[in-house]
């Protein structure tokens, strides 16, 4: 090693070179701590990021034992100095000795502290990561009356623990992957070994290895990676923040994807029926749960087709409407300046704006926006003669039916297709509605996720092998 540059020779690095290397890697970052030490006559350097480590723990369990050591004694010639320091002074701290200094910056980013000695090629890694995360709380979505009240948090370690507590099985596996060329996000695959098809797990591994994503901040960023190629109207990955729901999917031969930093866990492969199941269904009488699930399917069809059906029968097929009801609708529409289809689309757009506003507004005033929009604005547009009462009823019932689906993202995705059906019904009447529904069924029957059909009517989805 040259004295002028401090470059390494023979695999050894001087502490001055390590300091220069860390400053080049992190720049003048204020959270980079490089603390020079003298341990029994040996020059040492302790490096860590105080924003990623527990600084108080480092002070009490690393720095204090080292500085309190007897500095008048020398190391024996036969001693591995870092191993001796670990056994003598830092036995209470979990750690390991490694030799790969090229990964030093990555180790610090993971929350480890590194202890280096002058002239030694080894690094003593000390696991002093600061595990700060949101406490386990109640779910904000998929609420139930009867059932567990725990929800996943943003900590992957906490989420893995919640799953382990419910599935006490040695066959439960957790595989760690690093995704995102810039963010280096930790991702974990969870599955029951021997219960899920091995080719499904391998396909997921291949997708992760071939991913060229730059940054991952939520599990929603991964849904596109696991979705089949082509145009899709419906989600093909199931997401949940409930540990019991994810554990049920694991027992049903699925694979869970846990992303560090996201409170929502993905499960694949997903089928259409998954989005109509609520965790509460298995905690009550099976007959009642089956009836409620059937009601969700009916509500889904009403949310999808009711506005289009209303436009079709009022514009093209008035003979299907009873005479008294037809007279009432005609009386309500008297003086309305817009055609029926424009009236429906206008109200649909209004409800979408109210939905988005109530979601983005602060939690304190969000309900007030929804009440003011639904009651005051709805009454005002009827009194002004812009829309009819029957139109407000149809659009309002459609919006309410869309919230019946236990998974919010599934109800959100069908809104686009509902608008397509409204346009078809305004041009072709009921024939357009039938064509739209037929297209949807053909589209659903052609979707496969990891070789599993999206409409598993005649096969067991988790046991069918991928083609």
Summarize the structure.
By secondary structure, the protein is α+β, with helices and mostly antiparallel strands.
Description of the molecule:
The protein has 467 residues and is of the alpha+beta class. Helices cover 45% and strands 13% of the residues. The strands form three sheets. It has a five-stranded antiparallel sheet with strand order 1-2-4-5-3, with helices on both faces. Helix 5 (156-166) packs across helix 8 and helix 14 crosses helix 15. The protein starts with 14 loop residues before the first helix and ends in a 14-residue tail after the last strand. The relative contact order is 0.08. Residues 1-10 and 458-467 have low confidence and may be disordered.
Any key phrases for this structure?
single chain; 467 residues; alpha+beta; 5-stranded antiparallel β-sheet; disordered N terminus; disordered C terminus
Topology diagram in text:
Layout: H1 15-26, E1 32-39, E2 42-49, H2 55-67, H3 81-88, E3 95-98, H4 104-109, E4 112-117, E5 123-127, H5 156-166, E6 172-179, E7 185-192, H6 198-209, H7 220-226, E8 238-240, H8 243-251, E9 255-259, E10 265-268, H9 286-315, H10 323-333, H11 340-360, H12 366-383, H13 389-402, H14 408-428, H15 430-446, E11 448-449, E12 452-453
Antiparallel strand pairs: 1-2, 2-4, 3-5, 4-5, 6-7, 7-9, 8-10, 9-10, 11-12
């Amino acid at each position: 090693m040259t004295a002028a540059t401090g470059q390494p020779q023979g695999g050894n690095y001087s502490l001055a070179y390590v300091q220069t290397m860390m400053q080049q890697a992190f720049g003048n970052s204020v959270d980079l701590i490089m603390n020079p030490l003298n341990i029994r006559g040996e020059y040492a350097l302790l490096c860590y990021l105080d924003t990623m480590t527990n600084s108080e723990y480092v002070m009490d369990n690393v720095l204090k034992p080292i500085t309190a050591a007897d500095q008048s004694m020398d190391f024996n010639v036969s001693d591995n100095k870092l191993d001796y320091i670990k056994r003598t002074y830092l036995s209470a701290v979990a750690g390991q000795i490694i030799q790969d200094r090229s990964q030093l910056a990555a180790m610090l980013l993971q929350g480890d502290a590194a202890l280096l000695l002058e002239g030694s090629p080894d690094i003593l890694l000390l696991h002093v990561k600061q595990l700060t995360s949101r406490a386990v709380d109640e779910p904000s979505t998929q609420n139930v009356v009867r059932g567990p009240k725990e929800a996943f948090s943003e900590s992957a370690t906490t989420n893995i623990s919640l799953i382990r507590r419910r599935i006490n099985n040695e066959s439960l596996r957790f595989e760690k992957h690093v995704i995102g060329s810039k963010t280096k996000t930790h991702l974990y695959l969870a599955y029951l070994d021997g219960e899920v098809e091995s080719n499904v797990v391998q396909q997921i591994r291949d997708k992760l290895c071939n991913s060229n994503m730059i940054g991952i901040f939520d599990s929603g960023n991964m849904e596109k990676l696991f979705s089949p190629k082509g145009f899709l109207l419906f989600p093909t990955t199931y997401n949940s923040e409930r540990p019991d729901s994810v554990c049920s999917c694991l027992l049903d031969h699925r694979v869970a994807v846990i992303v560090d930093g996201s409170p929502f866990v993905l499960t694949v492969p997903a089928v259409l029926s998954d989005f109509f199941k609520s965790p509460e269904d298995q905690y009550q009488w099976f007959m009642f749960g089956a009836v409620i699930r059937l009601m969700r399917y009916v509500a889904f069809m009403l949310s999808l087709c009711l506005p289009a059906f209303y436009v079709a029968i009022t514009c093209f097929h008035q003979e299907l409407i009873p005479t008294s009801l037809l007279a009432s609708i005609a009386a309500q529409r008297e003086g309305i300046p817009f055609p029926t289809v424009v009236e429906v689309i206008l109200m649909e757009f209004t409800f979408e704006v109210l939905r988005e506003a109530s979601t983005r507004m602060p939690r304190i005033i969000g309900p007030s926006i929804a009440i003011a929009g639904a009651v005051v604005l709805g009454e005002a547009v009827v009194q002004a003669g812009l829309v009819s009462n029957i139109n407000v009823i149809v659009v309002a019932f459609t919006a309410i039916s869309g919230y019946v689906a236990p998974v919010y993202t599934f109800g959100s995705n069908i809104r686009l297709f509902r608008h397509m059906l409204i346009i078809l019904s305004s041009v072709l009447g009921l024939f357009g509605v039938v064509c739209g529904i037929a297209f949807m069924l053909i589209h659903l029957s052609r979707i496969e996720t990891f070789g599993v059909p999206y409409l598993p009517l005649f096969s067991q989805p988790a046991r069918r092998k991928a083609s």
